Amino acid sequence: MKFTLLSVLLLLCAMPALTQQQSADGEKVWSLEETYWRDVKANDLDHYRSLWHPNFLGWPSVSPEPLRKAQITKWITDHNSKGESLKSYELERLILQQTNALVTTTYRVRLVWADKNGAGSPQTTRIIHTWVKGSHGQWQIISGMSAPTNADGH
Questions:
Q1: What is the reported pTM?
Q2: What is the domain range of residue 21?
Q3: Does 128 reside within a domain?
Q4: Residue burial 72-87, b: 16+ Cβ < 10 Å; e: rest
Q5: What is the CATH number of the domain that holds 122?
Q6: Spatial strand order in the sheet of 85-99
Q7: d(CA 72, CA 52)
Q8: Rounded to whole angstroms, how far apart are CA atoms 69 and 118?
Q9: Does pLDDT of 18 surpass 50?
Q10: DSSP 66
Q11: DSSP summary character for residue 19
Q12: pLDDT tens, 27-48?
């Protein structure tokens, strides 16, 4: 009984430190999601690629098949080849979940791709990314998926 009580007390004492670390990791990953979209808007493809883990596997809504890291900028260059650039974006944070060295983010992004005249129409996409923390403390996207929202915006 004493061992069980001691174990519970130790666990309760350790929880605030664990929660603080998860909170710090979560905020770091959310800031990297913001960096992701700043990179897209600035067309900084080199930095954008650095956010992706070498073993990335994901399925963006713009692709008929899953993609690896080597193809991850194709959707941006496709817009650029049509003379479009990202005019604006807004992230709506939904749920973040951390399990050890993995953080999964879910959110909606409202964005406008504009042509050379500045014209464009708003669109909303649902995104889920799983970030992995590497041995040097760097977070990178290891997997993800996106999909357009439905008629209700969900």
A1: 0.83
A2: 17-148
A3: yes
A4: bbebbeebeeeebbbe
A5: 3.10.450.50
A6: 67-68, 52-59, 139-148, 122-133, 102-114, 85-99
A7: 8
A8: 30
A9: no
A10: -
A11: H
A12: 999 999 999 999 999 999 999 9
